[in-house]
Amino acid sequence: MSTVGILGGTGPAGQGVGIRLASAGYDVVLGSRDAERAATVAAKLSPRGTGTVTGTSNEGAAHCDVVVVATPWDSAVATVSALQEPLSGKIIVSMVNALAREGRELVPLYPPRGSMAAQIAHALPHATVVGAFHHLPASEMVTLDSGLDADVIIFGDDAVARESVATMVEAMPGLHAVIAGTMSLASAIEAFTAVCISINIRHKAHSYVKLAGLSH
Ligand SMILES: NC(=O)c1ccc[n+]([C@@H]2O[C@H](COP(=O)([O-])OP(=O)(O)OC[C@H]3O[C@@H](n4cnc5c(N)ncnc54)[C@H](OP(=O)(O)O)[C@@H]3O)[C@@H](O)[C@H]2O)c1
Fold it and tell me: What are the residue boundaries of the structural domains of the chain, listed by start?
């Protein structure tokens, strides 16, 4: 089974993905700017099954087989750029959304290359970037018995990498993988997160994406 590192893994998003990956049997390494903080956060997570969650530096997490980027959008490029060497040749999963709060709404920001996945791909020319996990509320992810039953929309230009991430997602409790297509969809998929969070703010909910009409 592959090991999965999560850059910025101490945040709600990284913890939510981490506990469900570990519950699928993966050995997960939460990365942080502060290895001690990551170890403390990881020790509080109790995945079900055979997988594990440990914590260390972002550099340590970058040495895993597959690496998820779960930092805030405005530090994602700097974080991955500093880890060029260990990230080279790997599948990098971006769950990063560039958003800004305006009153009761979140609005999408558009980075120069159209999406954060494209920014990260540009910063890591020797890695293969796949987008996933953008629309999932971390609160529902981290609580394993939340009843989560969500679709995870996956995109990327490399078909083999997309399939590999889809296999990982399918193994995670409460999640179904739906491959949408190529990196050209990244901007729309990331921006839709602003819609999801704005709905949740307005309706005081933790709703998530579930597509009708697909046969899983
Ligand atoms: N929260 C959600 O429900 C959710 C769902 C889907 C996708 N996402 C996306 O996932 C990403 C993380 O979300 P989050 O809510 O977990 O964010 P967050 O708590 O603000 O940040 C995650 C982690 O990133 C690290 N970090 C913070 N500032 C940094 C900086 N300047 N440089 C490097 N690392 C920094 C911190 O870890 P250390 O201090 O330990 O280094 C922090 O715990 C975002 O891009 C978000 O759009 C979030």
Answer: 3-203
pTM comes to: 0.98
Atom of ligand 1 nearest to the CA of 7: 24
- Whether 133 lines ligand 1, by a CB cut-off of 6 Å, is yes
Q: In which element (H, E) is residue 25 found?
A: none
In tens, the pLDDT along 128-181 reads 999 999 999 999 999 999 999 999 999 999 999 999 999 999 999 999 999 999
Q: What's the CATH code, domain 3-203?
A: 3.40.50.720
Q: Of all helices (H) and strands (E), which one includes residue 161?
A: helix 159-171
Cβ of residue 33 lying under 6 Å from some atom of ligand 1: yes
Measuring from atom 35 of ligand 1, which residue has the nearest CA?
71
What is the rounded CA–CA span in Å between residue 123 and residue 67? 15
